[in-house]
Amino acid sequence: MCGIVGYVGRRQAAPILVDGLGRLEYRGYDSAGIAVQNGHGVEVRKLAGRVGALKVEVTRTPLIGTSGIAHTRWATHGAPTTRNAHPHVDCRERIAVVHNGIIENADALRAALERAGHRFRTDTDTETLAHLIEDAPGATLEERVAAAIAAVVGTYGLAVLSADDPGKVVVARQGSPVLLGIGDGEFFVASDAAAVLAHTRSVVYLDDGDLAVLTPDRYHVTDADAHVQLRDVSDIAWDLEAIELGGYPHFMLKEICEQRETVQSTLRGRLLFADGTARLNGLNLPPETCAGINRIVIVACGTSWHAGLVGRHLIEELARVPVVVEYASEYRYGRQPPRPGTLAIAISQSGETADTLEAMRAARAAGCRVVGIVNVVGSTIAREADGGIYLHAGPEIGVASTKAFTSQIAALGLLGLYLGRQRGLSLEAGRAFACRLAQLPALVGQALALEPEVVAIAETFATARNALYLGRGVNFPVALEGALKLKEISYLHAEGYPAAEMKHGPIALIDADMPVVFVAPRDEVYPKVLSNMQEVKARGGRIIAVTTDGAGTEGLNALADHRLCVPATAPLLSPVVTTVPLQLLAYHIAVRRGCDVDRPRSAPGGSGSVPQSAVGGEDRGRAGGSGHPPAPGGGGFQGRRSHPPAGRR
Ligand code: GLU
HSE (CB half, 13 Å, CA atoms) of 82? Predict the structure, then answer.
């Protein structure tokens, strides 16, 4: 996902903008650019590559001016070249635009604009915006921007600068996150609070349809109906240090190693041991509603979808309600017959994953009540859902989602427990499960201690070209997730399969060059998984087994070339623990292969800026890898007391 920063005030804009871009670089990094209003025109610098190179360029030939906009791009339309980098300008180079998102009707708009005489310089969808604004009617820049976006179909977080409106930045939002930073005699725009935290902790989150105007003395926000809005100012409680590396070589490793704390953070204050249930204040599912649920549909992408598959086992077993898990990108385009009594659960790390958001909206349109499980407080899914659960896992900066996954499963465990207790799960069983949940952080800590063993295995397998990951039952999604992590960051081909499916084709691939990773904790399907291991061994395959400590693993010991023993937990919760060594394995193999683990090629994002079907780090907010830490008071379902009206708020 790419990033936007903007500034109006009395200081020189360029250093502030370039520094802000540096904070957003992890979200989109194929190119970067900046435009500054220099008193008589709009001056642009941009290039393909990293923000560091832009900084060098801006230092070499400074941009002078106190208002400006800047962008890091993750290309969707047009190659990631200097020419296609943002900002984009109109024919007369009086207007500059930076944009996160996709203009879906860009081709039609471009054709019409070219017929009207406009000359395009780039292949991007974004450039249509600059030309639309150029032609749009209006006395002020904001009027022209409003008129221009009326013609646009798609998603945008937008910041616009004009040579004819000095000291002003106009901002618009539709489907891509944008916030305003409120300073003293200066204002900021950003797609992510990290970009403004060096200057202010006060932010205003914009809603879809909002348009904001920033000048050094004031800002104002209007909604889609052009009504002036007084939006809450939220205080960002987290620190810039939270998004720094903290001594780790990569964010991904840092985030893997944080999981003891992040799972704890997801559970904190939510387990009611005496009552054998969970307290989920923002969930907004009163007992009578829980009793009436006859079906659950989980919608998600990538890693979050894998968490959803685990969630299905948790909820079906604890709450005895049928669950289907859908790819959000498929669900949103399906025909959803009205199904009274269906609860939809949208899972997204960033809370901005476009397909998940749209799937959630489709579910609501079909009459479902919708809850979100998201990490980012105040994100769009959090604000539009009827209720939900925040992960509180902190910013996830590595593109490959790790800590969000384990926290999502913990959150789904809480949800399953809560629903279960509302629907007939016994007090005793509820108490036992609550205790199992509470033990998870310590068990994750033990699983992390396997790292030296994982490093040794990674040495052996870093030269492999393919890998197969197999698991059964609740650990089949872990096999999928292990394979996804490996392919996403190491570019090794890896497949996850239900272990028993291997014999229906993939078995032909197995030989000494194909490492086979089994996720095989001792549970009710363990003997079956051992049989699958026999089949691999018979074909000379090399086996890495993630299994459980303790007695009863002799058969596995004889078959596996490498064993990684995680501590035992309730079988339903074992994915939280079995996932950890697989994350470490993917990480160490990628490092040995010299891959840029925090910035894998073709990294997906988490918002409307990119096609979400490919989102591995989910949401990477990801699309992906979104790094918004919690912002108390930032809106959404945190602490919500009552059921909000249906429909968009
Ligand atoms: N669609 C725009 C482009 O390809 C913006 C991409 C982005 O969100 O970075 O330039």
Answer: 7
